Amino acid sequence: MQALAPADLPGLRAALMRRGLTLATLLAEVLAGKRPPSLQQLLNARPGMRPEEVVRLALEQVESRRRLLDAGDDRFGRCDVCGTALGLTAMHEVPWADRCHQHAGI
Length: 106
Hints:
Layout: H1 9-31, H2 39-45, H3 51-71, H4 88-93
Helix pairs in contact: 1-3
């Protein structure tokens, strides 16, 4: 598994910021009483939660990963459960990932 290099971090941060903006926009729409189509995918992952709770939880996950990245914390890019490196390919696909495949419940 390829480790994260310092040159990879700006692109990952930009992807985190784009995801955060998307989620913040989605949250604003949900709070305004709209139910955008992109919300359905998030709701399927979290049955029983109100839409705004689901979006806030996803936004908090993105923000926590951004804080780790900005602090230079080596937990960014590692599983929160076992500490396994997630790998560059996985981080490019889902830079807000906080669990390895084994612990993601997939």
